What we know:
- Helices cover 12% and strands 50% of the residues.
- It is mainly beta.
- The strands form 2 sheets. The protein has a 6-stranded mixed beta sheet with strand order 8-1-2-11-10-9. The protein has a 5-stranded mixed beta sheet with strand order 3-6-7-5-4.
Amino acid sequence: xxxxxxxxxxxxxxEYAVSISQVREIIKYQSATKLPGTPSYIEGIxxxxxxxxAVIELSARFELNxxxxxxxxxxxxxxxxxxxxxxxxEVTEVKILAEAAIEVAQNNAMHGKxxxxxxxxxxxxxxxxxxxxxxxxxxxxxxxxxxx
Length: 148
């Protein structure tokens, strides 16, 4: 039986997960340099060991009302041929889920949110599995290429 290793993180009260194969590193997030003319959910850019990385505020991208805590983390991701960071409240664990515990999202059930690829069931918990390739629009990808 196939299984998938996931990095589980929290945004507000909800738990999300991404494939560990797309995670490059997890760092403490302090602040970003805001770039003019970018969407509100693009926090700006940060310098990670000499490399400029665009930072996406996931709570703003998902239109969640979450308070900005001081001790947030940035998960450096590689997806769609780009490296970028997503800001999360906390990383809770690395979890292995069996394929049978992942229910593939039906697009109509997710109201067109194609970046939700499924729901992982872990005992009484539900994890929202993100498809990071689909999280960003082609406009966002072009923008990330410009700033990186």
